[in-house]
Amino acid sequence: MTTNADSAPSDRVAERLQRSSAKHSYDPDVDIDWDAPLVDGAYGKPAHRCSLYGTPLWEGLSERQRAELSMQELGASTASGVWFELILMQGLTRYAYSADPTSHRAQYALTEIADECRHSTMFGKAIDKIDGIVHRPSRFGHRAGKLFGAVVGPTLLFSGAIYVEELADAMQREIMRDESLQPLGRMVSRIHVLEEARHISFAKDELERAWRSHGPLAREALRWALTGMMLVATEEFLHPKVYTSVGLDPREAKRVADSNPHWRQAKADWARKAVELFADMGIIRGPSSAVLRRAGLLDSVQRRPA
Ligand SMILES: [Fe+2]
Ligand SMILES: [Fe+2]
User: Fold this and answer.
1) pLDDT tens figures, 254-264
2) Whether the predicted pLDDT of 177 surpasses 60
3) Which of 61, 146, 270, 303 is most buried, judging by how many CB atoms fall within 10 Å of its CB?
4) Which Pfam families match (predicted)?
5) Is the sign of the CA dihedral 99, 105, 109, 111 positive or negative?
6) In whole angstroms, what is the distance from residue 276 CA to residue 225 CA?
7) Does 30 map to a domain?
8) d(Cα 205, Cα 41) in Å, to the nearest integer?
9) What is the 3-state secondary structure of 48-84?
10) Ligand nearest the Cα atom of residue 91
11) Mean pLDDT of all residues in 136-147
Protein backbone atom coordinates (compact mmCIF):
# COMPACT_ATOMS: atom_id res chain seq x y z
CA MET A 1 0.00 0.00 0.00
CA THR A 2 1.40 3.41 -0.97
CA THR A 3 1.40 6.02 1.75
CA ASN A 4 1.03 9.74 1.18
CA ALA A 5 4.32 10.31 3.00
CA ASP A 6 6.51 8.21 0.73
CA SER A 7 4.74 9.17 -2.50
CA ALA A 8 4.90 12.93 -2.09
CA PRO A 9 7.30 13.86 -4.96
CA SER A 10 5.55 11.61 -7.50
CA ASP A 11 2.19 12.72 -6.22
CA ARG A 12 2.97 16.27 -7.33
CA VAL A 13 3.41 15.11 -10.93
CA ALA A 14 0.21 13.09 -10.75
CA GLU A 15 -1.65 16.01 -9.18
CA ARG A 16 -0.58 18.34 -12.02
CA LEU A 17 -1.62 15.75 -14.63
CA GLN A 18 -4.96 15.21 -12.92
CA ARG A 19 -5.66 18.95 -13.05
CA SER A 20 -4.66 19.07 -16.71
CA SER A 21 -6.98 16.12 -17.50
CA ALA A 22 -9.90 17.90 -15.88
CA LYS A 23 -9.30 20.94 -18.11
CA HIS A 24 -8.30 19.38 -21.43
CA SER A 25 -9.98 16.10 -22.33
CA TYR A 26 -11.96 15.05 -25.38
CA ASP A 27 -15.10 13.01 -25.77
CA PRO A 28 -14.62 11.36 -29.18
CA ASP A 29 -18.30 10.43 -29.35
CA VAL A 30 -19.09 14.15 -29.50
CA ASP A 31 -15.87 15.73 -30.77
CA ILE A 32 -15.60 13.61 -33.94
CA ASP A 33 -18.20 13.82 -36.69
CA TRP A 34 -18.63 10.09 -37.29
CA ASP A 35 -21.20 10.68 -40.02
CA ALA A 36 -18.84 12.76 -42.19
CA PRO A 37 -17.91 10.87 -45.37
CA LEU A 38 -14.31 9.78 -45.91
CA VAL A 39 -12.30 11.74 -48.49
CA ASP A 40 -12.09 9.52 -51.55
CA GLY A 41 -8.53 8.51 -52.43
CA ALA A 42 -6.89 10.19 -49.41
CA TYR A 43 -3.99 8.37 -47.74
CA GLY A 44 -4.21 7.27 -44.11
CA LYS A 45 -0.55 7.98 -43.40
CA PRO A 46 2.22 9.56 -45.47
CA ALA A 47 3.30 7.40 -48.41
CA HIS A 48 6.95 7.27 -47.28
CA ARG A 49 5.82 5.81 -43.93
CA CYS A 50 4.00 2.89 -45.59
CA SER A 51 5.70 -0.47 -45.12
CA LEU A 52 6.22 -1.23 -48.82
CA TYR A 53 7.19 2.30 -49.93
CA GLY A 54 10.14 2.27 -52.33
CA THR A 55 9.94 -1.48 -53.08
CA PRO A 56 9.01 -3.15 -56.38
CA LEU A 57 5.73 -4.27 -54.78
CA TRP A 58 4.86 -0.61 -54.09
CA GLU A 59 5.80 0.35 -57.64
CA GLY A 60 3.41 -2.34 -58.89
CA LEU A 61 0.41 -0.83 -57.06
CA SER A 62 -1.91 1.75 -58.59
CA GLU A 63 -2.35 5.12 -56.86
CA ARG A 64 -5.74 3.98 -55.55
CA GLN A 65 -4.26 0.74 -54.18
CA ARG A 66 -1.47 2.65 -52.43
CA ALA A 67 -4.02 4.91 -50.75
CA GLU A 68 -6.09 1.87 -49.74
CA LEU A 69 -3.04 0.10 -48.32
CA SER A 70 -2.05 3.21 -46.36
CA MET A 71 -5.56 3.33 -44.85
CA GLN A 72 -5.41 -0.35 -43.97
CA GLU A 73 -1.97 0.10 -42.39
CA LEU A 74 -3.36 2.94 -40.30
CA GLY A 75 -6.29 0.69 -39.32
CA ALA A 76 -3.91 -2.11 -38.33
CA SER A 77 -1.80 0.20 -36.13
CA THR A 78 -5.03 1.47 -34.61
CA ALA A 79 -6.11 -2.11 -33.88
CA SER A 80 -2.78 -2.79 -32.20
CA GLY A 81 -3.43 0.39 -30.18
CA VAL A 82 -6.65 -1.14 -28.84
CA TRP A 83 -4.76 -4.33 -27.97
CA PHE A 84 -2.11 -2.42 -26.12
CA GLU A 85 -4.50 -0.10 -24.31
CA LEU A 86 -6.47 -3.07 -22.98
CA ILE A 87 -3.25 -4.57 -21.60
CA LEU A 88 -2.29 -1.21 -20.08
CA MET A 89 -5.72 -0.77 -18.51
CA GLN A 90 -5.36 -4.17 -16.87
CA GLY A 91 -1.93 -3.23 -15.50
CA LEU A 92 -3.16 0.18 -14.30
CA THR A 93 -6.10 -1.45 -12.54
CA ARG A 94 -3.66 -3.72 -10.69
CA TYR A 95 -1.51 -0.67 -9.90
CA ALA A 96 -4.51 1.21 -8.45
CA TYR A 97 -5.58 -1.92 -6.54
CA SER A 98 -2.37 -1.73 -4.47
CA ALA A 99 -2.28 2.06 -4.11
CA ASP A 100 -3.71 4.48 -1.56
CA PRO A 101 -6.96 5.70 -3.19
CA THR A 102 -6.50 9.14 -1.62
CA SER A 103 -3.16 9.63 -3.44
CA HIS A 104 -3.00 11.58 -6.68
CA ARG A 105 -1.00 8.74 -8.20
CA ALA A 106 -3.85 6.27 -7.68
CA GLN A 107 -6.39 8.80 -8.86
CA TYR A 108 -4.37 9.69 -11.94
CA ALA A 109 -4.02 5.96 -12.78
CA LEU A 110 -7.83 5.76 -12.70
CA THR A 111 -8.07 8.90 -14.86
CA GLU A 112 -5.71 7.29 -17.37
CA ILE A 113 -7.85 4.13 -17.45
CA ALA A 114 -10.87 6.34 -18.25
CA ASP A 115 -8.86 8.06 -21.05
CA GLU A 116 -7.86 4.69 -22.51
CA CYS A 117 -11.47 3.45 -22.39
CA ARG A 118 -12.48 6.41 -24.56
CA HIS A 119 -9.47 5.95 -26.85
CA SER A 120 -10.14 2.26 -27.46
CA THR A 121 -13.78 3.01 -28.22
CA MET A 122 -12.67 5.78 -30.60
CA PHE A 123 -10.16 3.45 -32.27
CA GLY A 124 -12.79 0.73 -32.69
CA LYS A 125 -15.20 3.18 -34.31
CA ALA A 126 -12.46 4.53 -36.59
CA ILE A 127 -11.48 1.02 -37.75
CA ASP A 128 -15.13 0.28 -38.46
CA LYS A 129 -15.54 3.56 -40.36
CA ILE A 130 -12.63 2.86 -42.70
CA ASP A 131 -13.62 -0.81 -43.18
CA GLY A 132 -10.39 -1.94 -41.56
CA ILE A 133 -9.76 -5.62 -42.06
CA VAL A 134 -7.57 -6.25 -39.02
CA HIS A 135 -9.05 -6.34 -35.55
CA ARG A 136 -6.95 -8.80 -33.54
CA PRO A 137 -3.26 -9.25 -32.72
CA SER A 138 -1.47 -12.48 -33.69
CA ARG A 139 -2.20 -15.55 -31.53
CA PHE A 140 1.20 -15.18 -29.85
CA GLY A 141 0.66 -11.45 -29.26
CA HIS A 142 -2.79 -12.13 -27.84
CA ARG A 143 -1.39 -14.65 -25.32
CA ALA A 144 1.71 -12.61 -24.48
CA GLY A 145 -0.48 -9.55 -23.86
CA LYS A 146 -2.75 -11.47 -21.51
CA LEU A 147 0.26 -12.57 -19.47
CA PHE A 148 1.90 -9.12 -19.57
CA GLY A 149 -1.20 -7.33 -18.25
CA ALA A 150 -1.74 -9.92 -15.53
CA VAL A 151 1.70 -10.33 -14.00
CA VAL A 152 4.18 -7.51 -14.66
CA GLY A 153 5.20 -4.97 -12.02
CA PRO A 154 5.51 -1.19 -12.41
CA THR A 155 8.92 -1.24 -14.16
CA LEU A 156 7.76 -3.30 -17.13
CA LEU A 157 4.26 -1.86 -17.11
CA PHE A 158 5.46 1.74 -17.39
CA SER A 159 8.45 1.08 -19.65
CA GLY A 160 6.15 -0.91 -21.94
CA ALA A 161 3.63 1.93 -21.84
CA ILE A 162 6.32 4.48 -22.73
CA TYR A 163 7.57 2.38 -25.63
CA VAL A 164 4.19 1.82 -27.27
CA GLU A 165 2.85 5.29 -26.48
CA GLU A 166 5.95 7.00 -27.93
CA LEU A 167 5.81 4.76 -31.02
CA ALA A 168 2.15 5.65 -31.63
CA ASP A 169 2.67 9.28 -30.63
CA ALA A 170 5.46 9.84 -33.17
CA MET A 171 3.43 8.31 -35.98
CA GLN A 172 0.28 10.22 -35.02
CA ARG A 173 2.12 13.57 -34.82
CA GLU A 174 3.20 13.08 -38.44
CA ILE A 175 -0.38 12.20 -39.42
CA MET A 176 -2.09 15.11 -37.64
CA ARG A 177 0.28 17.64 -39.26
CA ASP A 178 -0.14 16.38 -42.83
CA GLU A 179 -3.13 18.17 -44.36
CA SER A 180 -3.21 15.86 -47.38
CA LEU A 181 -4.23 12.86 -45.24
CA GLN A 182 -7.68 11.48 -44.38
CA PRO A 183 -9.33 14.00 -41.96
CA LEU A 184 -10.76 11.25 -39.72
CA GLY A 185 -7.29 9.78 -39.09
CA ARG A 186 -5.89 13.25 -38.43
CA MET A 187 -8.58 14.07 -35.85
CA VAL A 188 -8.23 10.71 -34.08
CA SER A 189 -4.47 11.30 -34.01
CA ARG A 190 -4.84 14.83 -32.62
CA ILE A 191 -7.08 13.70 -29.76
CA HIS A 192 -4.79 10.82 -28.93
CA VAL A 193 -1.58 12.86 -29.02
CA LEU A 194 -2.97 15.45 -26.60
CA GLU A 195 -4.05 12.93 -23.97
CA GLU A 196 -1.09 10.57 -24.41
CA ALA A 197 1.38 13.35 -23.55
CA ARG A 198 0.06 13.20 -19.98
CA HIS A 199 0.23 9.40 -19.90
CA ILE A 200 3.86 9.49 -21.01
CA SER A 201 4.73 12.05 -18.28
CA PHE A 202 3.10 9.85 -15.64
CA ALA A 203 4.80 6.70 -16.92
CA LYS A 204 8.24 8.38 -16.94
CA ASP A 205 7.81 9.51 -13.37
CA GLU A 206 6.69 6.05 -12.24
CA LEU A 207 9.41 4.30 -14.23
CA GLU A 208 12.20 6.39 -12.67
CA ARG A 209 10.90 5.56 -9.23
CA ALA A 210 10.48 1.83 -10.00
CA TRP A 211 13.88 1.47 -11.72
CA ARG A 212 15.71 2.96 -8.72
CA SER A 213 14.29 0.22 -6.48
CA HIS A 214 16.02 -2.66 -8.33
CA GLY A 215 19.48 -4.18 -7.78
CA PRO A 216 21.85 -5.16 -10.63
CA LEU A 217 20.49 -8.70 -11.15
CA ALA A 218 16.86 -7.62 -11.32
CA ARG A 219 17.81 -4.78 -13.66
CA GLU A 220 19.49 -7.17 -16.09
CA ALA A 221 16.45 -9.49 -16.06
CA LEU A 222 14.19 -6.49 -16.69
CA ARG A 223 16.38 -5.34 -19.61
CA TRP A 224 15.81 -8.67 -21.34
CA ALA A 225 12.09 -8.69 -20.55
CA LEU A 226 11.69 -5.17 -21.94
CA THR A 227 13.69 -6.13 -25.04
CA GLY A 228 11.25 -9.00 -25.67
CA MET A 229 8.29 -6.72 -25.10
CA MET A 230 9.66 -4.10 -27.52
CA LEU A 231 10.20 -6.69 -30.24
CA VAL A 232 6.69 -8.15 -29.85
CA ALA A 233 5.02 -4.71 -29.74
CA THR A 234 6.91 -3.53 -32.85
CA GLU A 235 5.98 -6.73 -34.69
CA GLU A 236 2.31 -6.32 -33.73
CA PHE A 237 2.26 -2.70 -34.91
CA LEU A 238 1.47 -3.87 -38.45
CA HIS A 239 -0.51 -7.05 -39.09
CA PRO A 240 0.41 -8.70 -42.44
CA LYS A 241 -3.26 -9.22 -43.24
CA VAL A 242 -3.31 -5.61 -44.47
CA TYR A 243 -1.64 -6.68 -47.71
CA THR A 244 -4.64 -8.78 -48.75
CA SER A 245 -6.59 -5.49 -49.21
CA VAL A 246 -4.61 -4.81 -52.38
CA GLY A 247 -4.33 -8.41 -53.55
CA LEU A 248 -0.80 -9.08 -52.26
CA ASP A 249 0.32 -12.31 -50.61
CA PRO A 250 0.72 -11.43 -46.89
CA ARG A 251 3.80 -13.63 -46.40
CA GLU A 252 5.68 -12.30 -49.37
CA ALA A 253 4.69 -8.69 -48.67
CA LYS A 254 5.74 -9.01 -45.02
CA ARG A 255 9.10 -10.42 -46.08
CA VAL A 256 9.57 -7.45 -48.42
CA ALA A 257 8.48 -4.98 -45.72
CA ASP A 258 10.81 -6.52 -43.12
CA SER A 259 13.81 -5.91 -45.35
CA ASN A 260 12.63 -2.49 -46.60
CA PRO A 261 15.08 0.18 -45.36
CA HIS A 262 12.35 2.87 -45.51
CA TRP A 263 10.09 0.86 -43.20
CA ARG A 264 12.96 0.01 -40.88
CA GLN A 265 13.76 3.73 -40.69
CA ALA A 266 10.12 4.64 -39.97
CA LYS A 267 9.99 2.24 -37.01
CA ALA A 268 13.37 3.44 -35.71
CA ASP A 269 12.30 7.09 -35.98
CA TRP A 270 9.04 6.43 -34.14
CA ALA A 271 10.86 4.45 -31.41
CA ARG A 272 13.61 7.07 -30.98
CA LYS A 273 12.27 9.03 -28.00
CA ALA A 274 11.60 5.91 -25.92
CA VAL A 275 14.93 4.36 -26.86
CA GLU A 276 16.83 7.55 -25.91
CA LEU A 277 15.06 7.71 -22.55
CA PHE A 278 15.80 4.05 -21.80
CA ALA A 279 19.45 4.48 -22.84
CA ASP A 280 19.81 7.57 -20.61
CA MET A 281 18.35 5.65 -17.67
CA GLY A 282 20.56 2.60 -18.31
CA ILE A 283 17.57 0.41 -19.18
CA ILE A 284 18.95 -0.18 -22.67
CA ARG A 285 22.50 -1.33 -22.05
CA GLY A 286 24.69 -4.41 -22.38
CA PRO A 287 23.98 -7.62 -24.32
CA SER A 288 20.22 -7.06 -24.70
CA SER A 289 20.91 -3.80 -26.55
CA ALA A 290 22.62 -5.80 -29.31
CA VAL A 291 19.32 -7.59 -29.96
CA LEU A 292 17.53 -4.25 -30.31
CA ARG A 293 20.27 -2.97 -32.59
CA ARG A 294 19.93 -6.00 -34.87
CA ALA A 295 16.17 -5.41 -35.02
CA GLY A 296 16.85 -1.85 -36.22
CA LEU A 297 15.25 -0.16 -33.22
CA LEU A 298 18.41 1.78 -32.33
CA ASP A 299 18.99 3.04 -35.88
CA SER A 300 17.81 6.59 -35.08
CA VAL A 301 19.93 7.12 -31.96
CA GLN A 302 23.63 7.78 -31.45
CA ARG A 303 25.67 4.62 -30.85
CA ARG A 304 26.48 4.34 -27.14
CA PRO A 305 29.02 2.13 -25.37
CA ALA A 306 27.54 -1.29 -24.45
FE1 LIG B 1 -4.57 5.92 -25.55
FE1 LIG C 1 -2.07 6.10 -23.02
Assistant:
1) 999 999 999 99
2) yes
3) 270
4) AurF
5) positive
6) 18
7) no
8) 42
9) HHCCCCCCHHHHCCCHHHHHHHHHHHHHHHHHHHHHH
10) 2
11) 88
**What is d(CA 80, CA 68) in angstroms, rounded to the nearest whole number?**
18
Q: Is residue 37 part of a domain?
A: no
Separation of CA 196 and ligand 1 centre (Å): 6
Ligand closest to CA 161: 2
Q: Does some domain include residue 32?
A: no
Determine the pLDDT at residue 136: 84
So what's the pLDDT on residue 10? 63
Arithmetic mean of pLDDT over the chain: 92
Determine the distance separating the centroid of ligand 1 and the alpha carbon of 192, expressed in angstroms.
6
CATH number reported for the structural domain that contains residue 276 in this entry: 1.10.620.20
Domain range spanning residue 142? 43-294
Instruction: Name the more confident of 145 and 250.
Output: 250
Q: What ligand is nearest to the CA atom of residue 119?
A: 1
245 secondary structure, DSSP code: G
What's the structural domain count of the chain?
1
List residues, by chain if needed, whose CB lies under 5 Å from ion ligand 2.
Answer: 196, 199
Q: How far is the CA of 62 from the centre of ligand 2 (A)?
A: 36
- Dihedral of CA atoms 34, 35, 39, 41 in degrees, nearest 10, equals 90
Q: What is the pLDDT of residue 133?
A: 86
